[in-house]
Amino acid sequence: MADAVETLLEIEQIKQLKYRYFRAIDCHDWALFETCVAEDVTTALDSGKYAFSGRARFVEGLRGLMDRPTLLSKHQGHHPEIELVAPDRARGSWYLEDHVIDTENGWMVHGTAFYQDEYVKRDGAWQILSTGYRRVFETVTAPIPEQFKVISCWFGLPE
Asked: In the record, which residues are listed under signal peptide (predicted)?
């Protein structure tokens, strides 16, 4: 029974890690985001469209794409399937739903995808070692309809 409880605790820590990862992206909290990924992380986001090798490049790359107060996003991970493959290794699959609004350039994206992750536990903490997703679908609305208004925003209202 103890092994089952320990396994569930490890899986819960990995779930919390992925939740922090999504929250950090949406809040543009790049210091928090950096703690979620391993120094030697590799990525293949959007079927490899956005591929990065190493924490510094990943943080810099994502920050360059997303760190504007006029870029609003929602990333939600659902239905995690996590498997511990060693005491310090795991892999997981997540169903992503994302919604991105670019008020500056006048477009919105809504989509879903499946994330495939690998995790590593170092110094007692889980981190993402590799991550990537493949789209199930993606829709784009451009220009943003005139009747669409952002009336509240974490970063302040866009002008």
From this structure: none
In a domain, 157, yes or no: no
**124 located within any domain:** yes
Range of the domain at 115: 2-141
**Total domains in the fold of the chain:** 1
Compute the C-alpha angle 131/136/137, nearest 5°. Answer: 120
pLDDT at 40 over 80: yes
Q: Which of 33, 104, 22 lies closest to 71 in space, CA to CA?
A: 104
Q: Tell me the C-alpha to C-alpha distance, in Å, between residue 56 and each of 24, 43, 53, 106, 142.
A: 15, 12, 8, 30, 32
pLDDT score at 11:
98
What is the pLDDT, as a whole number, of residue 119?
Answer: 98
Contact 141, 102 (CB under 8 A): no
pTM over 0.85: yes
* Count of beta carbons in the 10 Å neighbourhood of residue 159: 6
- Assign residue 51 the CATH number of its domain: 3.10.450.50
State residue 159's pLDDT score.
60
- Beta partners for 131? 43, 117
Amino acid at 73: S
pLDDT score recorded for residue 131: 98
